[in-house]
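[job 0417] fold request received: Alpha-1,4 glucan phosphorylase
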Amino acid sequence: MYNPIFEKEKFKREVTNNVKTLFRKTVDEATPQQLFQAVSYAVKEVIIDDWIATQKAYKEQDPKIVYYMSMEFLMGRALGNNLINMTAYKEVAEALDEMGIDLNAVENEEPDAALGNGGLGRLAACFLDSLATLGYAAYGCGIRYRYGMFKQKIEDGYQVETPDNWLKNGNPFELRRPEYAKEVRFGGNIRVEYDEEGKTHFVQEHYESVRAVPYDMPIVGYNNHMVNTLRIWDAEPIVDFQLDEFDRGDYHKAVEQENLAKNIVEVLYPNDNHYAGKELRLKQQYFFISASIQQALSKYKMTHDDIHKLPEKVTFQMNDTHPTVAVAELMRILLDEEGLGWNEAWEITTHTCAYTNHTIMAEALEKWPIDLFSRLLPRVYQIIQEIDRRFVEQIRSQYPGDEGKVKRMAILMDGQVKMAHLAIVAGYSVNGVAALHTEILKKQELRDFYEMMPSKFNNKTNGITQRRFLLHGNPLLADWVTEKLGTKDWATDLSLMSGLRKWADDEEALKEFMSIKYKNKERLAQYILEHNGIEIDPRSIFDVQVKRLHEYKRQLLNILHVMYLYNQIKEHPERSFYPRTFIFGAKASAGYIRAKQIIKLINSVADVVNNDRSINGKLKVVFIEDYRVSNAELLFAGADVSEQISTASKEASGTGNMKFMLNGAPTLGTMDGANVEIVQEVGIENAFIFGLSSDEVISFEQHGGYNPVDIYNSDHEIRRVVDQLVDGTYGYGNREMYRDLYNSLLNTKSSSRADMYFILKDFRAYAEAQEKVEAAYRDRDRWAKMALLNTASCGKFSSDRTIEEYVKDIWHLDKLTVEV
Ligand SMILES: *Cc1c(COP(=O)(O)O)cnc(C)c1O
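[job 0417] inference complete; emitting structure tokens
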């Protein structure tokens, strides 16, 4: 029934014609990149009609709209995903095949849209996919960075960053929308004016401004003709747009504004879970927020005349504190441009903005210095002062005499603007991203706020889209699931996966399941051979840890354990040892020196271990260069073991854990983030859980940590591994190369605590859990059952479920139907 693209012959003609008009070539002469462009434009042609139909449905049905505000959208590639959601993938592959074109090769020509760092940005991308699929009206609002997440090269074992010029060949799916451009103002000062009626007006003068120009990317819903929009803003100089009378003819000003525009959207900050306090970053935040809110309000006002009813039609979801300036910007527009009084404006704002918290780690909390903030955003700062003044008054009346509360909760304190506090005070909802995380927020980090406004707090456990991470990333398993369930409805209702449980004792089904895993391991081995030049054995256990490099994620624990295994194999060559391949993939923020040392260590260990002929290839270590969404899809599909070993309490949710589970890889992990809920769903007997609990970690932290030296002294195998960091074993004879890592584990003299992330404390438990992995893997039937049960139990972790919860508890959206 639904087959927009297929008229196959028409599609083929379209591709041929695109090659001709775009490149003056025939299909045979076209380069792979040119074929990617030609195919993508042919696909966009089909998407456009549904995109128009969706806009028409917006107009006619006037649904409430969620604006998902995020500094990051880690979209990955669009072509294959669009085809999957149009349910046209196989047909297009076939059509192209008839033209002698390999769709897979074409897909590989597309650069990832890597406008994000990791989990937070990928969550935003999964949410957009689910919103469109479930029929909700939504805009993603973000920044069109000229350079996204850097490309990672590994040179001599070290990470080297190179710019990600993702737009160099143009982006076939985007649409520039100059007609929706907005002006965004920075700096200057505020002059107060009184009109005839004695009303106060705040006039910003001597400011610099840029022109925000939106680019729209289609977000194709699955099999429903819905196409939502990711609207990302580019900055252009305002000079040829409209120069304020005051500035006309000011050449220097014009040049400054040109530079401001250039700089503002130049690059994504590559920090994950870390606040750097850079002025340009604050400019980026206000830039896209101001443009997005202006845009949302003008759209609302086109068809509604009562601004007081804004909360009935609009909700702004703030993805972490990065977009929190939205609450003050909305207040500014309501007060200064709509002419509302404070109470009216506050009533609207506090029913329109909602906040998602993503971390409890102190180093990630955004606290802008007041001098910087007030200089850059003078009017917004005045408004925050007033919000703070009223809030502090409220604290004092509710908790008389408790100045400790004021100090802990105020928005403005110690010369800083605390963005999380602003978001909580002005937002009508505060949500954590996994059950454990939300509990920690309520009991520890945000306890004062929870006590004062308990009804705002709620949990929304993260999820992932099965369209990208199973249908697209693992077509063999997707087909098998469809066959076994007798329906493909799992693509939009992942709870149906539980129907696979009945195959968990069926020998034939288990064999099929494992043979698919084997083929995916071969596919991954091929990728590794091509990219790393390392030959790995698909019969070995593929143990995978892919995620941003962060001390709390404990890649160091993993690689220390590899060093330990290597010692074991060397010392006990007589023992039987099941062959293992440890696969890592991780980018470190460019300025995060210790994270980069860990990457170097992993590569050094890989060098030593992979080239030691004496161990007969029993152990291999691979570092995947440039981990990103496109190669992630291969990694999840080809993994046997999912490493989720963060220090308990530190990983708010994790979503990589869910992608592995979906693809049939049991979790080896701590009771942290969403791992807790994964274990609840699959059963603890189908996971490998170890280590300190979050309560234990928090308790140690409240008592100044623990003493790792005791462990070092009492466990000679651990001592040996730690010593190998500084005895030249992995430093090519250089004993200083990993001295800092060694010190981080043992040295209590340094300013921070020794072994802050409890690596040595959890080491033994981890090694024992790894032994259980090996034992379980040796039992082929047991392993197959475990793996299958993971796939069968992943239903909860679809972002469709997460979005339905946001809709029910926070957004209250209407479902839309698109007619074509
Ligand atoms: C899912 C995903 C992440 C998040 O992984 P975690 O293990 O949850 O930190 C990061 N990067 C990419 C490319 C992803 O696909």
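[job 0417] notes: The two ends are 12 Å apart (CA to CA). The CA atoms of residues 430 and 477 lie 37 Å apart.
[job 0417] exit 0
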